[in-house]
Design brief:
The chain is an all-alpha fold. About 70% of the residues lie in helices and about 0% in strands. The chain is built from ten helices and no strands. Helix 3 packs antiparallel against helix 9 and helix 6 crosses helix 8. The longest helix is centred in the N-terminal third of the chain and has 36 residues. The protein is flat. The N terminus is likely disordered.
Length: about 290
Amino acid sequence: MTTASTALYDIPGPRTRRRHLLYGLISTAAILGIAAWILFLLFDTGQFTATKWSPFAYEGIQELLLRGLGNTLKAFAYASVLSLALGGVLATGRLSEHRVFRWTATLFVEFFRAMPVLVMIFFIFVALKVQPLPALVAGLTLYNGSVLAEVFRTGVHAVARGQREAAYALGMRKTQVMTYVLVPQALRAMLPAIISQLVVALKDTSLGFLITYEEFLHAGKLIASNLDYDLPFIPVVMVISPIYIGMCILLSWFATWVAKRERRSPKTRATDVAPAEPATLLPGRE
């Protein structure tokens, strides 16, 4: 029996599969060993004692964490909406036939995409003397909007050239071609990348901690600084980290779900066809 193959790679044979299984077992054992070592250190330093976890049962601390989480989600909501809007505007400029608009949008995108997010946030907060929330949102918007502009532009260019040419052949203007032909098709390919970039924006909201914005991480710092036992930050991190990770996993799962859903185009789904009926005979035919 011969091993099947594809144009891109050969399907692994029995020896390769055994080798891959061995690699998987070694990697799993290493990960479990690291996890066991971390748990041993946590138990050895007494991180799971009731003394270190009882403060989280206080209503004041719970309200502080919830308020910080709400501020994080508020900053993320503002930044995500504004980033999508800015990305659309910049992508339109980069796709423009007018050289001035195209070059201006290109310079804007390349500059803010290369600029570190933290530097932009600090500059807006310190040099321009903007309040913490607008400074954080502005920095996230400038960076993520520039990245999303490239996502939008690449998505439009990824549509088959024949679609554009056929639309122009029908007498459609460029605005109509973009609105009715290119953007709807490109959106299917762009959605997973857009949502993945929003995951980055959600994680970067934690940078507000450095400019005293009272987001989730800042709330954790306030709690840890008021606890009177050794290594107070470890229990706080063990509370905050799973929530951050959970929110990012939800967004990543949503991106995967969107990608799977958009692969099933309505135009390619099976359609029920009515059974054939006896045709009417022409005159003179039996």
